[in-house]
Write a structure and sequence with these properties.
alpha+beta, 4-stranded mixed β-sheet, two-stranded antiparallel ribbon
Protein backbone atom coordinates (compact mmCIF):
# COMPACT_ATOMS: atom_id res chain seq x y z
CA UNK A 1 0.00 0.00 0.00
CA UNK A 2 1.40 3.37 -1.01
CA UNK A 3 1.61 6.09 1.61
CA UNK A 4 -0.62 9.14 1.28
CA UNK A 5 1.15 12.40 2.24
CA UNK A 6 -0.69 15.74 2.18
CA UNK A 7 -3.37 14.22 -0.04
CA UNK A 8 -0.97 12.90 -2.68
CA UNK A 9 0.10 9.36 -3.40
CA UNK A 10 3.85 9.64 -3.71
CA UNK A 11 7.18 9.55 -1.95
CA UNK A 12 7.03 13.15 -0.67
CA UNK A 13 4.78 16.14 -0.07
CA UNK A 14 2.80 16.78 -3.23
CA UNK A 15 5.14 14.86 -5.55
CA UNK A 16 3.01 12.39 -7.44
CA UNK A 17 4.23 9.05 -8.69
CA UNK A 18 5.37 8.74 -12.29
CA UNK A 19 2.49 9.08 -14.72
CA UNK A 20 0.09 10.57 -12.19
CA UNK A 21 -1.65 13.82 -13.07
CA UNK A 22 -1.87 16.71 -10.64
CA UNK A 23 -5.12 18.65 -10.64
CA UNK A 24 -3.27 21.97 -10.55
CA UNK A 25 -0.53 23.40 -12.72
CA UNK A 26 1.22 26.63 -11.69
CA UNK A 27 -1.44 27.23 -9.01
CA UNK A 28 -4.23 27.45 -11.64
CA UNK A 29 -6.99 24.79 -11.76
CA UNK A 30 -6.46 22.54 -14.76
CA UNK A 31 -9.06 22.75 -17.53
CA UNK A 32 -7.59 19.95 -19.64
CA UNK A 33 -10.58 17.77 -18.89
CA UNK A 34 -13.06 20.42 -19.95
CA UNK A 35 -14.58 23.39 -18.15
CA UNK A 36 -15.39 22.76 -14.51
CA UNK A 37 -19.10 23.25 -13.85
CA UNK A 38 -20.87 24.17 -10.64
CA UNK A 39 -24.69 23.97 -10.73
CA UNK A 40 -24.48 24.17 -14.51
CA UNK A 41 -22.20 27.23 -14.57
CA UNK A 42 -18.51 27.54 -15.35
CA UNK A 43 -16.53 28.49 -12.24
CA UNK A 44 -15.13 32.02 -12.70
CA UNK A 45 -11.38 32.44 -12.20
CA UNK A 46 -11.83 35.02 -9.44
CA UNK A 47 -12.84 32.25 -7.03
CA UNK A 48 -9.36 30.73 -6.81
CA UNK A 49 -7.73 34.15 -7.16
CA UNK A 50 -9.68 35.36 -4.16
CA UNK A 51 -8.74 32.17 -2.32
CA UNK A 52 -5.04 32.75 -3.06
CA UNK A 53 -5.29 36.36 -1.87
CA UNK A 54 -6.86 35.23 1.38
CA UNK A 55 -4.05 32.74 1.95
CA UNK A 56 -1.35 35.35 1.26
CA UNK A 57 -3.12 37.84 3.53
CA UNK A 58 -3.24 35.21 6.27
CA UNK A 59 0.47 34.50 5.83
CA UNK A 60 1.33 38.18 6.20
CA UNK A 61 -0.95 38.84 9.17
CA UNK A 62 -0.63 35.64 11.19
CA UNK A 63 2.74 34.52 9.89
CA UNK A 64 4.92 37.62 9.58
CA UNK A 65 3.24 40.29 11.70
CA UNK A 66 2.36 38.10 14.70
CA UNK A 67 4.76 35.18 14.20
CA UNK A 68 2.18 32.47 14.90
CA UNK A 69 3.39 28.87 14.62
CA UNK A 70 6.95 30.07 13.92
CA UNK A 71 9.69 27.47 13.58
CA UNK A 72 12.59 29.89 13.01
CA UNK A 73 14.17 32.62 15.10
CA UNK A 74 16.05 35.19 13.01
CA UNK A 75 18.43 37.51 14.88
CA UNK A 76 19.57 40.73 13.21
CA UNK A 77 21.04 43.86 14.86
CA UNK A 78 19.41 43.20 18.21
CA UNK A 79 15.99 42.39 16.74
CA UNK A 80 14.49 38.90 16.84
CA UNK A 81 11.95 37.80 14.23
CA UNK A 82 9.71 34.74 14.74
CA UNK A 83 9.38 33.38 11.20
CA UNK A 84 8.83 30.26 9.14
CA UNK A 85 11.52 28.20 7.40
CA UNK A 86 9.31 27.30 4.44
CA UNK A 87 8.74 30.99 3.62
CA UNK A 88 12.34 32.01 4.33
CA UNK A 89 13.60 29.32 1.96
CA UNK A 90 12.40 31.54 -0.91
CA UNK A 91 15.58 33.53 -0.21
CA UNK A 92 18.79 31.75 -1.28
CA UNK A 93 20.71 33.71 1.36
CA UNK A 94 18.42 32.70 4.24
CA UNK A 95 18.08 29.13 2.92
CA UNK A 96 21.87 28.85 3.09
CA UNK A 97 21.93 30.14 6.68
CA UNK A 98 19.24 27.66 7.73
CA UNK A 99 21.12 24.77 6.15
CA UNK A 100 24.48 25.66 7.70
CA UNK A 101 23.52 26.85 11.19
CA UNK A 102 22.53 24.24 13.80
CA UNK A 103 18.96 23.68 14.97
CA UNK A 104 17.88 23.69 18.60
CA UNK A 105 14.97 21.53 19.65
CA UNK A 106 13.69 21.29 16.08
CA UNK A 107 13.76 25.07 15.70
CA UNK A 108 16.00 26.99 13.31
CA UNK A 109 18.04 29.77 14.93
CA UNK A 110 19.86 31.96 12.42
CA UNK A 111 21.97 35.07 12.79
CA UNK A 112 22.19 37.68 10.03
CA UNK A 113 25.37 39.74 10.32
CA UNK A 114 24.96 43.16 8.69
CA UNK A 115 28.01 44.82 10.27
CA UNK A 116 29.59 45.19 6.82
CA UNK A 117 26.38 46.14 5.01
CA UNK A 118 25.53 49.68 6.21
CA UNK A 119 23.27 50.26 3.20
CA UNK A 120 20.93 47.50 4.44
CA UNK A 121 18.85 49.48 6.94
CA UNK A 122 16.74 47.90 9.67
CA UNK A 123 13.59 49.22 8.00
CA UNK A 124 14.70 48.01 4.58
CA UNK A 125 15.44 44.53 5.91
CA UNK A 126 12.04 44.40 7.62
CA UNK A 127 10.17 45.22 4.40
CA UNK A 128 12.22 42.72 2.39
CA UNK A 129 11.35 39.98 4.90
CA UNK A 130 7.68 40.98 4.70
CA UNK A 131 7.84 40.71 0.91
CA UNK A 132 8.79 37.04 1.26
CA UNK A 133 5.34 36.55 2.78
CA UNK A 134 3.26 38.89 0.62
CA UNK A 135 3.48 41.46 -2.15
CA UNK A 136 1.32 43.69 0.05
CA UNK A 137 4.62 44.77 1.64
CA UNK A 138 5.11 47.06 -1.37
CA UNK A 139 2.59 49.46 0.15
CA UNK A 140 5.10 50.30 2.92
CA UNK A 141 7.97 51.15 0.57
CA UNK A 142 8.49 54.87 -0.05
CA UNK A 143 11.14 57.10 -1.56
CA UNK A 144 12.57 57.64 1.95
CA UNK A 145 13.30 53.95 2.59
CA UNK A 146 13.65 52.58 -0.97
CA UNK A 147 17.46 52.51 -0.97
CA UNK A 148 17.57 50.37 2.17
CA UNK A 149 14.91 48.07 0.72
CA UNK A 150 16.86 47.71 -2.54
CA UNK A 151 20.01 46.77 -0.63
CA UNK A 152 18.10 44.25 1.52
CA UNK A 153 16.38 42.70 -1.49
CA UNK A 154 19.72 42.28 -3.21
CA UNK A 155 21.11 40.63 -0.08
CA UNK A 156 18.26 38.13 0.30
CA UNK A 157 18.22 37.31 -3.42
CA UNK A 158 15.60 36.14 -5.91
CA UNK A 159 13.60 39.35 -5.50
CA UNK A 160 13.89 40.90 -8.94
CA UNK A 161 10.43 42.50 -8.85
CA UNK A 162 11.07 44.08 -5.45
CA UNK A 163 14.48 45.32 -6.62
CA UNK A 164 13.00 47.00 -9.69
CA UNK A 165 10.20 48.58 -7.64
CA UNK A 166 12.63 49.92 -5.03
CA UNK A 167 15.02 51.13 -7.72
CA UNK A 168 12.29 53.15 -9.44
CA UNK A 169 11.49 54.81 -6.11
CA UNK A 170 15.20 55.53 -5.65
CA UNK A 171 15.17 57.33 -8.98
CA UNK A 172 12.22 59.44 -7.82
CA UNK A 173 13.99 60.23 -4.54
CA UNK A 174 16.87 62.09 -6.21
CA UNK A 175 16.06 65.74 -5.49
CA UNK A 176 17.93 68.86 -4.48
CA UNK A 177 17.11 68.12 -0.82
CA UNK A 178 18.31 64.52 -0.92
CA UNK A 179 21.31 65.19 -3.16
CA UNK A 180 23.86 65.39 -0.28
CA UNK A 181 22.97 61.81 0.71
CA UNK A 182 23.27 60.62 -2.89
CA UNK A 183 26.61 62.42 -3.30
CA UNK A 184 27.85 60.55 -0.23
CA UNK A 185 26.67 57.36 -1.93
CA UNK A 186 28.74 58.30 -5.00
CA UNK A 187 31.77 59.16 -2.90
CA UNK A 188 32.09 55.53 -1.80
CA UNK A 189 33.30 54.64 -5.30
CA UNK A 190 37.08 54.98 -5.85
CA UNK A 191 37.98 57.65 -8.38
CA UNK A 192 40.81 58.50 -10.72
CA UNK A 193 43.94 59.86 -9.05
CA UNK A 194 45.20 62.13 -11.80
CA UNK A 195 42.02 63.33 -13.51
CA UNK A 196 43.08 61.92 -16.87
CA UNK A 197 39.86 59.94 -17.25
CA UNK A 198 36.24 60.18 -16.20
CA UNK A 199 35.23 56.76 -14.83
CA UNK A 200 31.67 57.57 -13.81
CA UNK A 201 30.20 54.16 -14.62
CA UNK A 202 32.84 51.44 -15.10
CA UNK A 203 34.61 51.31 -11.76
CA UNK A 204 35.31 48.48 -9.30
CA UNK A 205 32.53 48.44 -6.69
CA UNK A 206 33.26 49.85 -3.26
CA UNK A 207 32.57 47.39 -0.40
CA UNK A 208 29.77 49.63 0.83
CA UNK A 209 27.92 49.80 -2.49
CA UNK A 210 28.82 46.33 -3.82
CA UNK A 211 25.54 45.04 -2.37
CA UNK A 212 23.63 46.96 -5.06
CA UNK A 213 25.26 44.98 -7.86
CA UNK A 214 24.08 46.23 -11.29
CA UNK A 215 21.91 48.89 -9.65
CA UNK A 216 24.95 50.85 -8.39
CA UNK A 217 26.07 52.04 -11.85
CA UNK A 218 22.45 52.67 -12.82
CA UNK A 219 22.02 54.90 -9.78
CA UNK A 220 25.28 56.72 -10.53
CA UNK A 221 24.04 57.38 -14.04
CA UNK A 222 20.71 58.65 -12.65
CA UNK A 223 22.52 61.04 -10.31
CA UNK A 224 24.73 62.22 -13.17
CA UNK A 225 21.66 62.91 -15.34
CA UNK A 226 20.05 64.82 -12.48
CA UNK A 227 23.15 66.99 -12.03
CA UNK A 228 23.72 67.68 -15.72
CA UNK A 229 20.22 67.83 -17.20
CA UNK A 230 17.57 68.20 -14.49
CA UNK A 231 19.21 70.43 -11.89
CA UNK A 232 20.12 73.44 -14.10
CA UNK A 233 16.48 73.73 -15.16
CA UNK A 234 15.23 73.01 -11.65
CA UNK A 235 17.15 75.89 -10.08
CA UNK A 236 16.54 78.24 -13.01
CA UNK A 237 20.11 78.58 -14.26
CA UNK A 238 20.37 81.49 -16.68
CA UNK A 239 18.29 83.96 -14.72
CA UNK A 240 14.87 82.28 -14.62
CA UNK A 241 13.36 82.52 -11.16
CA UNK A 242 11.93 79.33 -9.64
CA UNK A 243 10.40 78.52 -6.23
CA UNK A 244 13.78 77.01 -5.29
CA UNK A 245 15.76 80.11 -6.33
CA UNK A 246 13.58 83.25 -6.40
CA UNK A 247 14.99 86.28 -8.18
CA UNK A 248 16.74 88.93 -6.15
CA UNK A 249 14.79 92.14 -5.56
CA UNK A 250 17.94 94.24 -5.85
CA UNK A 251 19.15 92.90 -9.17
CA UNK A 252 16.88 92.11 -12.08
CA UNK A 253 19.79 90.55 -14.01
CA UNK A 254 21.07 88.31 -11.22
CA UNK A 255 21.26 84.61 -12.09
CA UNK A 256 18.67 83.12 -9.77
CA UNK A 257 20.09 79.58 -9.98
CA UNK A 258 23.80 79.96 -10.63
CA UNK A 259 24.78 80.32 -6.98
CA UNK A 260 22.68 77.29 -6.02
CA UNK A 261 24.26 75.24 -8.78
CA UNK A 262 27.74 76.37 -7.72
CA UNK A 263 27.09 75.28 -4.13
CA UNK A 264 26.04 71.84 -5.36
CA UNK A 265 29.01 71.37 -7.69
CA UNK A 266 31.36 72.49 -4.94
CA UNK A 267 30.45 69.24 -3.10
CA UNK A 268 30.42 66.79 -6.02
CA UNK A 269 33.15 64.08 -6.06
CA UNK A 270 35.90 64.97 -8.54
CA UNK A 271 35.22 62.24 -11.12
CA UNK A 272 31.57 63.21 -11.37
CA UNK A 273 32.46 66.92 -11.36
CA UNK A 274 34.89 66.42 -14.25
CA UNK A 275 32.45 64.29 -16.25
CA UNK A 276 29.62 66.78 -15.74
CA UNK A 277 31.61 69.88 -16.67
CA UNK A 278 33.02 68.20 -19.78
CA UNK A 279 29.68 66.73 -20.87
CA UNK A 280 28.13 68.39 -23.97
CA UNK A 281 24.72 67.78 -22.36
CA UNK A 282 25.59 70.20 -19.55
CA UNK A 283 23.98 73.21 -21.19
CA UNK A 284 25.07 76.44 -19.50
CA UNK A 285 25.00 78.67 -22.53
CA UNK A 286 28.29 79.20 -24.35
CA UNK A 287 31.52 77.28 -23.83
CA UNK A 288 32.97 80.34 -22.12
CA UNK A 289 30.00 80.43 -19.75
CA UNK A 290 30.61 76.79 -18.79
CA UNK A 291 34.35 77.51 -18.42
CA UNK A 292 33.63 80.43 -16.07
CA UNK A 293 31.18 78.31 -14.07
CA UNK A 294 33.78 75.54 -13.69
CA UNK A 295 36.43 78.04 -12.63
CA UNK A 296 34.17 79.53 -9.95
CA UNK A 297 33.18 76.05 -8.75
CA UNK A 298 36.82 75.01 -8.41
CA UNK A 299 37.49 78.07 -6.24
CA UNK A 300 34.68 76.93 -3.92
CA UNK A 301 35.97 73.38 -3.98
CA UNK A 302 39.36 74.54 -2.72
CA UNK A 303 37.60 75.65 0.48
CA UNK A 304 35.69 72.39 0.87
CA UNK A 305 35.80 68.97 -0.80
CA UNK A 306 39.20 69.50 -2.49
CA UNK A 307 40.84 70.97 0.58
CA UNK A 308 43.69 68.92 2.03
CA UNK A 309 43.64 66.33 -0.79
CA UNK A 310 47.14 67.17 -1.95
CA UNK A 311 45.84 67.68 -5.48
CA UNK A 312 45.14 70.78 -7.53
CA UNK A 313 42.07 71.02 -9.75
CA UNK A 314 42.18 73.22 -12.85
CA UNK A 315 40.00 73.96 -15.86
CA UNK A 316 41.11 74.97 -19.34
CA UNK A 317 39.47 75.63 -22.67
CA UNK A 318 39.96 72.70 -25.04
CA UNK A 319 40.70 73.31 -28.69
CA UNK A 320 40.65 70.97 -31.68
CA UNK A 321 37.95 69.03 -33.48
CA UNK A 322 38.98 65.74 -31.83
CA UNK A 323 38.05 66.98 -28.36
CA UNK A 324 35.17 65.18 -26.66
CA UNK A 325 35.04 67.50 -23.67
CA UNK A 326 32.61 69.96 -25.18
CA UNK A 327 35.26 72.68 -25.24
CA UNK A 328 36.11 72.56 -21.51
CA UNK A 329 38.67 70.27 -19.88
CA UNK A 330 39.02 69.65 -16.13
CA UNK A 331 42.22 68.15 -14.73
CA UNK A 332 43.62 67.28 -11.35
CA UNK A 333 47.32 67.00 -10.57
CA UNK A 334 49.14 66.09 -7.41
CA UNK A 335 51.02 68.97 -5.88
CA UNK A 336 54.77 68.53 -5.75
CA UNK A 337 56.12 68.08 -2.28
CA UNK A 338 58.45 70.81 -1.16
CA UNK A 339 61.97 69.56 -0.62
CA UNK A 340 64.02 70.85 2.28
CA UNK A 341 67.79 71.06 2.24
CA UNK A 342 69.46 69.61 5.27
CA UNK A 343 72.73 71.26 6.28
CA UNK A 344 75.47 68.91 7.37
Amino acid sequence: MSMIINGHGGPSNGVAAAGAQDAYVNAVPSTSGGNRLANGYTQPPYLYQQHNEEIVGHLLQSGFQTGNYADTLLHVRGTVYRLHALILSRSPYLAHLMSTQPQSGGQHIIYVNLDHEPEVTDEGFHHALAYLYSGAALASIRTENARGVLAAARLLGRMDDLCEYAYELCQQSITLDTLPSWLEFLDTTPGSSDGSSTPVIDQPPHPRTAIFGPYAPRLREDIFTFLVVTLPDLVGFGGTATPLTPASENSQHADAGRDTLLQVYARVPFDLFKAAIESPTFQLGTVHSRFKFAKDAIELRKQGIARGTGAEETVVLAFGGASTSGGVLVTRKLRKRQLFKVNS
